[in-house]
Amino acid sequence: MARSVRRKLRQIERGRIHSAEERVQHILDERTESLASRRKDGAALVEVLPRALVCGSGRERFAIPIESVAEVLPPQKYLRVPDGPLALVGLFGRSGRVVSVIDLALALGIEPTSAEKDHHFVLLRRDHPHVALRVERAHAVADIHLLTGEEATGFRTDAVTGYARMHGAADDPSDTLALLDIERLLRPFLSPSPVPGV
Predict the structure, then answer these.
(1) 20 to 30 Å CA-CA from 49: which of 65, 110, 147, 178?
(2) Which residues does the UniProt record annotate as the domain CheW-like (predicted)?
(3) Tell me, what DSSP letter sits at residue 195?
(4) Angle at the Cα of 88 (from 162 to 123), degrees rounded to 5?
């Protein structure tokens, strides 16, 4: 008799645990549904914007995808590269690595407008070779929205993949940013690998 009572008590106890688990699951399901419906209602209002480093070279402003940027450095001393491409202006050392300096304006064929001593260096997130872009000014990291149609006009080159404006900026054509494709920009400066298949 005592065994059957204990067995019944265990079954009742298991039933309570099961009921508690069911209650917890039910609450979680209700919360999930509530959050999902809020997300659907607010989906039209929430827009995920890309982020970019906005910088200037010559009379143009450019947007470099933030995932391509490792660091923005103040003006650096560098060694000039003799007999190299015009845009490859020099080399400097950083954390035991040699970093090639490419002037953004010269790489894009536009005329610089400020003195060389004031330039910022945008250290790119790359394994090899290490490269920094010399820009006249690194302005800010900003959310940007892409332009389409007639708005999407401005400076043209292979390395420019589109146009954008900083989120919240006025619809002024002078605020248009040229979106840079870093790999396309660097392609003329990267020598092919001497090892076949690499």
Answers:
(1) 110
(2) 49-191
(3) S
(4) 65
